[in-house]
Amino acid sequence: MGRRKILIVMAAGSGTRMGASVPKQFLPLGGEMILKRTIEIFLSAVPDIRIITVLPRDYLEFWKNSCLEGSFYYPQTLVSGGITRFHSVKNALRKVPDGAVVAIHDGVRPLISKELIMNMFTQMDSGRCHALIPVLPAIDALRLLEEKVGKLCDTGLQVNRSQVFRCQTPQMFLSEDIKAAYSLPFDTSFTDDASVAYANKVPLSYCDGERLNFKITSPEDLALAEMIISSRQR
Ligand code: C5P
Fold this sequence. Notes:
Layout: E1 4-10, E2 28-29, E3 32-33, H1 34-45, E4 50-55, H2 60-69, E5 76-80, H3 85-93, E6 100-106, H4 114-125, E7 131-137, E8 145-148, E9 151-154, E10 165-167, E11 171-174, H5 175-181, H6 193-199, E12 205-208, H7 219-233
Parallel strand pairs: 1-4, 1-6, 4-5, 7-12
Antiparallel strand pairs: 2-3, 6-11, 7-10, 7-11, 8-9
Helix pairs in contact: 1-4
The structure holds cytidine-5'-monophosphate (C5P).
C-alpha cells in the first residue's frame, strides 16, 4: 500500500525557446497534447495517483476547455505557476498533505516509461530512501569553458566525466521533506527540486534515468519525439 502518491506536473513555463504561439506543453505530439500525454503515462502507472497540474495563470481556462474537448476527465487540482519553476513548485506544494510521496515531473517529458515511474514509486515505498532522482551519465567528452566577449574560451579547469550526471524528472520526495525544503528562500543555484532538497539536508538517492525521457525544449526535440511516438505506434 504505502504512502498516498501525488504527481505535481510542472507546466507553467512560457516555452519561449520553441517559438510557437502557445507554450510547448500545449503543442500536439502524435495528435495529442504533450501535457495530456505526460499525465496519462502517470495514470497508466499509478491509476489512483492524485494530480496537481501547475499552469500559467492565463492558460487555466484553456487547459480546462482542452480537457473537456479531449474527454480527459481525470480530477486534477489546478494551480497557477510563479515567476520561476521554484515559485511554481512552491505554489503546488501548498496543496500537498504530509505523509505522501510526491513526484515532481516536467510536463514536457511525455516519453518516460511506465516502468520507470512504477519502479521509482516501489523504491520510495520500500522506506529505504527519502528522495529519488533519475540520472544519466555524461557520454560526450566534457570541457569547462567560459564565454568572453561572445567567444568560448578554455578555463584550464578539468572535468572528470565519470563524476558528471544529468538529472531528469520525476524527482520523488517524502512530502514533509520537500515542503520543508521549499520554505528556504529562493536561490539562483536551485536548478531542480533535488538541489532545493539537498540544500535543506535531505539525503538524495539516485536511479538510472532514461534517454528517451528528455525534456521537449526545441523544435528538434519535438520532431524527435514525433518520430519516437510514431515508431511506438507501428
Ligand atoms: O524552463 P524549463 O524548461 O526548465 O522548465 C521545466 C518545466 O518547468 C517545464 O515543464 C515548465 O513548464 C515548468 N515551469 C513552471 N513554472 C515556471 C517555469 C517553468 O512550471 N515558472
